[in-house]
Amino acid sequence: MWTFMFSGGVFNSFCHDAPASLPSMVLKSMKISTVMKCAQGSPCSLHLNIKGTLSLDENIRGLEICSLSLDTQQSQCVNVRFARKKSKILNGKKVQIQFNCIEVNVAQHIYVTMKTVPNYCEVKLSQEYYVEDCRNSDVGKYIPACSAGKFDYNVDRARKIISVNVSSFLRDEDYYVRLCHKWFTCEDVGAFAVIKGKESLKSVSLKYSQLLPCLCIEGWLAIPDARRIQLCPFENDTKALWDNIVYNPVTQTLAWEPACPVLVMVNLCRLMKSNDYCEDIQNSSRSSPEKQVKYSRVDTHPRLCMKFTTKQGSWVKCPFAHGEFPAWKMRTAAVAEQIQVFFTSQTKAQFSVFVCNRTQLASCESLGMHHSVSVGDSVSITMSREMCGSTFCIQGWRTDVDYSVPLQICDIHCGFHGQTYSDGNPAKAMAHRMKSVHSLH
Predict the structure, then answer these.
(1) Which residues have C-beta within 8 Å of that of residue 28, sequence separation ≥ 6?
(2) pTM above 0.70?
(3) Are 154 and 204 in contact (CB under 8 A)?
C-alpha cells in the first residue's frame, strides 16, 4: 500500500491551497522519541522514532517527514506514498503513522516537520527535539561517540614532556590527544597527536612550555560528534602564573597578565627589610580573574613589589630587585638639633619628607609638616629632644609618581654632630621581570 522514498533535502517545500473538502484535522498529535538500533558486528546507532495520526483522504497521496539539524543545518527526509485505490477505499479512516528510519547523533538539536503530499498550506505538524547526550545510561554505554576513553599520564619536567596512555576506547578507531589551555573553551597548545586504532601502542608524548593551572589533556575518538574528555592535573600549580610581569620604562607602567583564568587579589607592596613582610601600598588593590592588571607611574625602587593572594596562599614578586634600573636613596645627617635630609637618584625625581612616630612595624604617624625636596637638594628638619629616640623616624617617598615605597630612617640620636644615617643597604639592581618568589603562607 505504501511506498517509501528517502532524500537528503526537503523536496516538498512549496505548498498549495487545501481543497475545501479536506478536513482541518488531517494530521494530529506528532510524538518524537529516540530509539537505538544495534546490529550484530556493527556499533549501535540512534534514530528518531516519530509517531502521528493521519486521517486518510482521496486528496492526500502521501506524507513527508523531515528532520533538520539546528547544529549543522543538514536535513533528512522520508517520503511515503499511498496507493490511490486504497486511499479511496479507506477515505476518512484514521491511521497511526510511525517512522524510525532517520539516524541522528548524540545530543543533536533537531527540528522535525510532518507534511502531506501534496504539501497543503497550514496542514503541517512541527516540533523541536533534543537527542539524549552521553549522560543517558544506555547512550553512554552503547554509542561509540560516548566512548571517550581513559587517561594515564606521566610528566618529565626536565624535558617538558607529558606522556599520555589511553585505554578503554573502541578498537580499530583512531584517537586524538592534545594539550590545551582551558578558558571558556580549551584553546590549542600545539598540534594534536593521533593514536592509530590498529596499532598496539596506545600512548603519545606531548611537549609543553609551562605547567599552568589551566593546562589540560584532552582526548576524543576520530569520529563525528565524538565525546571529549579532559584531565586538568595541574590546577594547584599556580607558581608560574606570577612570572608574567612587565615594566615599560617609557610610560612607567607596571603590568601583569594572567596566563590562565585565576581568582586573585593583586596589590603593590613595600618589602620590609626586617622580616621579609610586604606591606600593602594604599589604593593599589586589584581583583582580576582574567584581565590584565596595570599600574601607571610606578616607582622603580627595589623594595616595591607585587603581592598575589589566592585561596592557596600569597606570593610576592619584586620586579625591580635584580639590576636594570637605578634606585633612589635617602640620607640624613645630624647637625646640632637639626636633621639634614637629602636624596640621591640618577634620574630626576621629587620627594616629600616628614618626621613620624612608628607605633607599629608598618605604621608611622606624622608629627609635623611635609617638606618637598628635589634630587640634589636637601632640607633641614628641627628635632626636639622629645622627638629623638628609637620610635621616631624620618620618612621619605617619591611624589612625582602614583605608586612609591616610603623609606624610613629611624633611631635618630640628636646632638651628635656629623652623624650620618641612610635608608639601609645599598640599592640593588632591578629587572623587567621578577624571578624570585617569597611565599607568605
Answers:
(1) 52, 53, 54, 55, 125
(2) no
(3) no
